[in-house]
Here is the input.
Amino acid sequence: MGACLGACSLLSCASCLCGSAPCILCSCCPNSRNSTVSRLLFTAFLFLGVLVSIIMLSPGVESQLHKLPWVCEEGTQNLVVLQGHIDCGSLLGHHAVYHMCFAMAAFFFLFTLLMICVRSSRDPRAAIQNGFWFFKFLILVGITVGAFYIPDGSFSNIWFYFGVVGSFLFILIQLVLFIDFAHSWNQRWLCKAEERDSRAWYAGLFFFTLLFYTLSIAAVTLLFIYYTQPGACHEGKVFISLNLCFCVCVSIIAVLPKVQDAQPNSGLLQASVITLYTMFVTWLALSNVPDQKCNPHLLTDFGNETVLAGPEGYVTRWWDAPSIVGLVIFILCSLFISLRSSDHRQVNSLMQTEERPPILEASQQQQVAAREGRAFDNEQDGVTYSYSFFHFCLVLASLHIMMTLTNWYRPSETQKMISTWTAVWVKICASWAGLLLYLWTLVAPILLPSRDFS
Here is the structure.
């Protein structure tokens, strides 16, 4: 029913979606910047694919897939799906997610190549970026249908490694977004404290900094309790201890006098946000450890009881807490990519966006657009973000959500249906790379004094 209502609402905006002109010519679009509207619509395409992937993993769809005559039957050449302790419907659902996310990644990668070196909305390719939404939707549907005709074979095994690399890079992008968010937050509250001469803003910063550090300490404690055992789980103990030490180090460096002189806006709020996010990534990594003693998520059901399974029968709970929290953070970061307008020059350079000066007087086109309630073109003199890099971020987002929804399931290991140490090491290395990246933002002005990092 919800899908039907959504389809009806799209049909009501057919003049906007089917038009060959950019979205700024469509009266059904909101009164906002053209660049923002386009990013939101592309992100909506991404969320639509995520929704379809979630539906593919839902128990109802998996049970229907399980009823197909060729499921869990031995073919003439090879075994389509192995029998035994494997949930064949779940296996099919995860293969469907691989194909769906491949279609999304291919769609956005096509636009990544198409939008290289677009400098302003006067470029003919900008009209494709900002318009023709109905035809772009048809292209996405066509690629999706074609993707499901790709035979599994080695496709899923190869695409798994693309997902590993893409998810690693997207975790770093998430960290950059958190750094940007914490920096903007700290800067705004400090400015308000100076303007209004009020200590309440300083108290607020202190409260949230203390809260984030408290949550981080609680996370470390819970990780040691639930993901380590006496005399076992040595890898988990090392990962937790190392990340805790690294977070303490970057927190100390963030408040050193030389760092403060080079970057007055640097402080413990940013360090506390990075610390909490690092603990979250550590949690995600430990939830993929393929060892029942060190991972409470490796459970199986026997009747009405849930107990630890033996070496041949344990499975992974796909909708566990780490997966749900990871999905929520993915959605928030994807929206932030679409809406962000950073005032941090280093972040703008890294994310391929530009800081635009405020427009004092609206142009005649903007005034007309405001009266008619439609989007206006704010990129005639230059784009406010890199079209190509934005689509590349959506490619990485497609790969990351594929790995998140499948809980880093590796298709070649169907006999166990669990994640491998590959997922653990990728996430741990991503947390280390993220901390190194944050450390660079702190010490770069000191190491390179001739460059402008203001």
Summary: The first helix runs from residue 2 to 12. The mean pLDDT is 74.
